[in-house]
Amino acid sequence: MNKTELIIEKALKNPVTDHVVISYSKSETHHIRFSNNSVNRENLFKLEEEVKAEVGWDGRTGSCRTNDLSEEGIKRAVDKACETARLLPSDPEYMPPVTEAEAAALKDFKPVFSEPSDDRKYGILKDAFGELKKAGLNSAGSLSSNPYTVRVYNNRGARAVHHNCVSAFMLTAMTGNSSFKDFHMSKDLSDYDGKTFLADIVARTRLSENPAPCEPGKYTVVLGPAAVEELLLMFLWYNLDAKAIDEGRSALSKRAGARIAGENVHIYSKPDHGRVGLYPFCPEDAMPYPAFDMIRDGKLASPWYSRFYAGKKGVTATGRVPANVIFKGTDKPLEKLISGVENGLYINSFWYIRLVDMMDGIFTGMTRDGVFRIKDGKLAQSVNNFRFNQSVFEMLDSITEIGREKEMVFTSIPPITVRDFNFVSKTEF
Amino acid sequence: MEKLSEIAAYLKGKGARFADAREHLFHEREIMTEDNRVEQITEQDISGTGIKVLYNNGWGYACTSAGDMDSLRGAADKALALAKYADRSAEVPVELAAEPRHTAKFATKIKEDPFAVKAGDAVGALLEAAGVMLKGKDIIKAVSSLVLRNMRKKYANTEGSAIETDIFTILPEIEATARANDEVKTRHYLPAPMNAGYEYFRGIDFKANAARIAEQAREHCFARSCESGPATLVLDPEHLSLTMHESVGHPTELDRVLGYEESCAGRSFATMDKLNNFRYGSELVNLVADNTLEGGLASIGYDDEGVECRKWHIVKAGILTGYGVNRELAHKMKMSRANGTTRATKYSDVPITRMPNLYLAPGKKPLSKEQLIADTENGIYIEGRGSFSIDQMRLNMQFGGDAFWEIKNGKLTGMLKNVVYNAISYQFWRGCDAIADESEFCRAGFITCGKGDPMQAAQMTHGASPARFRNIMVRRAK
Predict the structure, then answer these.
(1) pLDDT, tens only, B331-347
(2) Which among B44, B127, B183 has the least Cβ separation from residue A65?
(3) A 254-283 residues with CB below 8 A of B?
(4) CA-CA distances (angstroms) from residue B282 to A57, B253, B288, B432, B468?
(5) Are residues A293 and A414 in the same domain?
(6) Is B325 found in the same domain as B270?
């Protein structure tokens, strides 16, 4: 037990009230950012340790975060949280801390990783800069590794700990008039295959050069995993809160029991996935995340329930945000999806997605870093970027093909083929 | 301050061309209410020191939350080691613009320290506003929030500057959601966020505005859909704060223009070859950057690379005339000094070029908002912020709003719904043919402007008088 843990345990031995939750987080971020084929932006190392104290007082809760981890600092945070709670009116949605028995249901996925060395990280970049320069391309992006630990303690005996690492190499390669983006995410980059990754991005970026003008309209599109993730998460975030649904503030409020997606769509959460997800429990209160289906057989299977609202409705709490989001894929590679389209577009990623109409689940956004015409099952000419205004319900109900999942930090998402995707305008590049 | 100066000197002794150390205390209280309950109230007290090093032509940054010399030296060594790695891949020499040595202090002018007031005071005011909103017909949700922030910094660099700043920020907002006529609509009241003391919060009339937005949220549910097609828009200052933020503020950050932000925030159409010759807007359009604006969210006296905050034109009489420029890139503009708009959110963040306080200068001829609307035969009047999206070169933009009214023969004739407009950014500003005068000028602003990698949230003020824009493509949201 380190010094901070001892201080926290001491604070919980004689808690200021019958509701004290102390969470402790430690992260070591090494983040290397680059542009114009050199490390010339944020190039930083930060070790951050914080404690968050949550104190309940007669049916209300206050909290305080600090990075002063001395005994006095943590005591001050607990006292501040307590003082805040005492000032508040009674909270009808007050929830006592998670019990030891509830926390015992936790199934940690205990990730195995070996943090990459500085030489390894800068070496990956050196190779990338070399390959891209050789190909006459420019680059921008980041390479990062972030080992972290989260511990949650409370005065009811619950103890939860999770140690994990997220590493990512994000690379945008550019010609003089186009760009293509790809990424590799894993625990520690030990599975990064630079030769294949760089050869692929060089080929795609060259293909992106000199985009041809293309008019907006409805197209059959193959959406890459990043594009699907960006739009899907936005939709889920806005619409899956159970309380909002019941209060009529979600697009799902008026779709109870209705078809909201094709029957081929299965979206679920699996906390013990092992490679996808940040925590197996809620880092605020140690509530273990459950496995559950969100969308299955074309219908809403389960929305997201907070502990309070789950208790009220007599269902299992999922957390206000689940452990992870998995869109069930198939064994079809992306190329197979492209080969199935006679005339359409391939969209690598989206940018700046925003809600346009809440109740009908309509979102807008731009394509970015890779838009290609698909002709006779092959990527043909690169084209200009588009703006879309698209109902996600209609998108989920118009998926004709689903490909192989790609694992990202919080998600595992496949590419998909969608009919009649709605592009409303184009831009100048 | 002595420790920070000592660390800068320590790094100079180890061969650094330039180094600075920034002690940064971040204290924030955030209150969020939902209907008649306090959903969340949190305090944050996060402090530490960030150390930035330039070794030959490579930058490194490291930080520590501990204040003892051993920890500071440890962070300094780490920053230097990273800078040496970066130097190996450096493509161009780094040239830092000169900045006078400053020994200075700057503080927000406040009468009442927000953190000396018990949280219960603000909770009471917010819940009272919620109570008013919930009394509105068909109101199903009343939400409010308040952010109180204090940032205290000490800064020292190898050039001998020693600067202390003490900044207080207040950001309140309330919103009402109505459900009626098979629609759900939300209306907001966003008093201008300010660098100010608690006295500013006490002066806000939440009750009257709570009743107003509750009524307008419901009215919006019964509004008729707009027509699609080219239209004349009259936009209020709060709405314009978002359009200028996205279509002027971001594209004129010089680091973006030069490709440094390509991988995340994107680049810009407003390239340097367009400086002093590109028509960004009509001749009426003057967009002024001003980090000396009293109470402005980016008015911090001296920025996080020790540069004194300044005022300059981004667009003058419609022509692109300036950028937000840091010390490293000033020479690209042949500027002898940066303009003081480099900031970091917390001690663990690297200071980067951030958007300054930016406002649309009021029209010079007397013109009230009422006169502006009366002078508009047909159009749409938009208040507040709604959906917003723009491409990574800052060209194709689409905006909604918080509330919309039809203008017919110079009069507001009723609310509209489902309004979004879509334009190429510079064409939008070229369509500006009238701006109300100074008496109508209002501020707005943000504390959540995202940029950087890792992402940082910055704050800045915007301002405008209501303005009119011709021939803008309006679409129905659905």
Answers:
(1) 999 999 999 999 999 99
(2) B44
(3) 254
(4) 59, 21, 15, 6, 11
(5) yes
(6) yes
ipTM for this prediction: 0.95
Looking at the DSSP assignment, which residues form a beta bridge with residue B33?
Answer: B38, B144
User: Which residues on chain B are in Cβ contact (under 8 Å) with A84?
Assistant: 41, 43, 119
Residue of B26, B52, B177, B263 to mutate, testing the A interface (most A Cβ within 10 Å of its Cβ): B263
Of A69, A248, A359, the CB nearest to B140: A248
Residues in chain A: 429
Alpha helix stretches (DSSP H) within B19-101: 69-88
Examine the domain organization and report whether B309 and B437 are in the same domain.
Answer: yes
Name chain B contacts of A389, Cβ cutoff 8 Å: 398, 420, 475, 477
pLDDT tens digits for range B359-386? 999 999 999 999 999 999 999 999 999 9
Q: Considering the domain boundaries, does residue A376 fall inside one?
A: yes
B476/A contact by beta carbon, under 8 A: no
**A161 and A259 co-located in one domain:** no
If asked whether residues B205 and B229 sit together in one domain, one would say no
Question: What's this model's pTM, rounded to 2 decimal places?
Answer: 0.96
Query: Rounded distance, CA A95 to CA A307, Å?
Result: 7
What CATH number is associated with residue A60? 3.30.2290.10
- Token readout for A67 is 């990075």
Q: Which residues of A touch B392 (CB under 8 A)?
A: 351-352, 366, 368
User: Is B86 in Cβ contact with A354 (below 8 Å)?
Assistant: no
Strand-pair category, A292-296 with A299-300: antiparallel
d(CA B11, CA B158): 8
Domain encompassing residue B205 = 2-222
Pair B186, B291 in one domain: no
pLDDT tens digits, A46-94: 999 999 999 999 999 999 999 999 999 999 999 999 999 998 889 999 9
A310 and A386 housed in the same domain? yes
Question: How many residues comprise chain B?
Answer: 478
The answer to whether A89 faces chain B, any CB pair under 8 Å, is yes
B contact residues 27-86, partner A, Cβ 8 Å cutoff: 36-48, 58-65, 78-79, 81-83, 85-86
Q: Which of B168, B195, B222 is the last residue of a domain?
A: B222
B284-324 pLDDT, tens digit each: 999 999 999 999 999 999 999 999 999 999 999 999 999 99
Q: Is the CB of residue B254 less than 8 Å from the CB of residue B323?
A: yes
Interface subset of A 138-157, CB within 8 angstroms of B? 138, 140-142, 144
B173 and B244 inside one domain: no
Q: How many folded domains does chain B comprise?
A: 2
Q: Give the percent of chain B with pLDDT over 90.
A: 99
Residues A135 and A63 in one domain: yes
A126, B89: Cβ pair inside 8 Å?
A: yes
Which of B193, B80, B450 is CA-nearest to residue A351? B450
Domain edge (last residue) among B159, B190, B222:
B222
